[in-house]
Amino acid sequence: MKDIRNHRRVNDILLGPLERPALQWLAAHMPKWVTPDILTGIGLLGTFLILIGYVMSNYNPAFLWLASFGFLVNWFGDSLDGTLARYRKIERPAYGFFTDHMIDAFSQVLIFLGLGISPYISFNIACLALISFFLLTIYIYVRTSVVGEFKISFSKLGPTELRLLAILLNTYMFFAGVHTFELTIGSIYTVAISIYDVMVVIVTVILFLIYVVSVIKQSYELSQLEK
């Protein structure tokens, strides 16, 4: 087992050439009283804004803009806390890794819960998406412990791109509204689903396939290494 405090971080994302310089600039210009822990709290605040936005969209679709703003706040805090710690050379690797990712897990539950409570996404489908997301997250954490590499990007896609996709989906839902159609399964069971349910199911399947392929590939590499 690798020492979690000395793991290598890999985040090779599509928006990396834009995100990394932006985070470095923000870290260099951040007031001294702003600490990584404060930024982690800001990221969590963004999560609650997302949850509130989705829940309140039951009463007014304009609250979807609050959810989108929450994703921006969440990105700011969650992406910048580690960058600031590294910039100021005040890293606490074990504490930071544990705290950050426990809060991430809690945030994921709140975000998908909010989606399921909103009038746009079925609660069951939101839960399935959360399960696939959790499976991939667990793979990342276990692999970090075994290999010593914290890889959070797959095919140039990472948390930043997922946040952007969520904001784009929120924008589309706001302008398109809620539209459902009936899907008959077999001859006796009919369920009402929306186009957004179909979109989330597609993303869920993609996440699950990434998980399955990654697990099989990593298992094979470890078996060859430890023959």
Give a topology summary:
Elements: E1 8-10, H1 16-28, H2 36-56, H3 63-87, H4 93-117, H5 123-147, E2 149-151, H6 159-176, E3 180-185, E4 189-194, H7 195-225
Please name the defining characteristics of this protein:
227 residues; mainly alpha; Four Helix Bundle (Hemerythrin (Met), subunit A); two-stranded parallel ribbon; two-stranded antiparallel sheet; 70% helix; globular
Q: Give the terminus-to-terminus CA distance.
A: 17 Å
The named CATH superfamily: CDP-alcohol phosphotransferase transmembrane (TM) domain
Number of domains: 1
- Total of helices: 7
Instruction: Count the E strands.
Output: 4
Residue ranges: pLDDT <50 for 5 or more in a row? none
**Category by helix and strand content:** mainly alpha
The level-1 CATH class: Mainly Alpha
The radius of gyration computed from the alpha-carbon positions, rounded to a whole number of angstroms, is: 19 Å
The mean pLDDT is: 90
Give the strand content: 5-15%
Helices and strands, in order, run as: EHHHHHEHEEH
Named at the architecture level, the CATH assignment is Up-down Bundle
